[in-house]
Fold these 2 entries.
Entry 1:
Amino acid sequence: MPHFDLFFKTEELRRRLEPHLRLIPPFFEFTVRTGTPEVRYFDQKDPMWKGFPFPVPDRTVYVFDDAIPARALGGGMQNRASIRVTREDRDDEALILRIWHEILHAVGQPADDMAKRAGEWQNMSERVMWAAWQSLSRPVDVPFWHRKFYEWLTERAAAGAGGR
Ligand SMILES: [Zn+2]
């Protein structure tokens, strides 16, 4: 089972989000800490990642609240993930889904492929609902679908299926 040191930058972030961590299936285990791990920065010329801190130590997740010029809200790879909480983020559950998303990337799961892999993870009734949803032009990039997709990816990770 993947075990991560999960750092919340501030006590305030920790108080706010730690109680909701149980949304993430117990396959992922966390040791919760307050503070900042050792971080590094990606290419400072890339506007997607400018100023975005990323953990150096293996199996580390960092949740931070800085206003930074980067466009990215999160990144995850090679057993590491970083998640930004912006001032506009009001929905704690959506933030936990953002953390879950990046952790799935961190363990090599294709967390961005919800629509592309719809045929793989949806059951019959979800398929019908998904089609209706789209015919009404409702955006599918919402917590309702994210949660179902991430649950499937987590089971996939637990079954040992890696790759992208
Ligand atoms: Zn992603």
Entry 2:
Amino acid sequence: MELQVLGCSGGIGAGNRTTSLRLGDNVVIDAGTGLADLPLAELARIDHVFLTHAHLDHIACLPLLLDTVAPVRTTPVTVHASQSALDTLQRHIFNWQVWPDFTQIPHPDRGLLRYEVMERGDTFTLGELTLTALPVLHTVPAVAYRMDSGKASVVFSGDTDDHAPFWQAVAAVDNLQTLIIETAFADHEAALARASRHLTPQRLLAALGALPGGLDIRITHLKPFDHELIMRELTGQASAGLQLKRLLQGDVIRF
Ligand SMILES: [Zn+2]
Ligand SMILES: [Zn+2]
């Protein structure tokens, strides 16, 4: 299985794209601005969108995706997310005011957009791939995803504060190869990170100490103005043996 990083920045501007990861050719995790760079034919192939939560940086290109592929799709695009996130999308995005209600287009009986509830603990199987929603802590209901190819797993945190149930779920993944974990803010923004339920280098490193060594750890969602500082703070304080790298747009993780 291949996981391709379409966007992994905590902001925009000159080469930065917000969160979107593509699994194989027909699944994406989050639909931030990174999604917009795919060629038309590849956009048209997306059957499933799994959302970690409904914040704008993770959904910005979902409405535009549906509008773009509508003329060439004969089957719906299924959006998998918590009931709370789906309610947010329906109420605040697909409400005929911000954007058309694609659950009713092209026809109320066969909308292009389908919702499927995925709460923490739920799994969804697609061929050999199994996705499992894991608990995280954010300002709105949110999940992380475990992606299991049958050979190995990648866990992607989405947005989260430090959260013991998340770390317990990560530690329980028996075939974990790669952990993609957010660190949105530098340590000097600790108060803002707490208020917005994101991680800082110090708090991430404290939590990582309990995980087994040898894990491939990729840092995502760095705020653009502080990305170098965040990585310096992480690598400067990390204990020997921790394999920490910044996740980069264009990275392909095979598992
Ligand atoms: Zn968020
Ligand atoms: Zn975010």
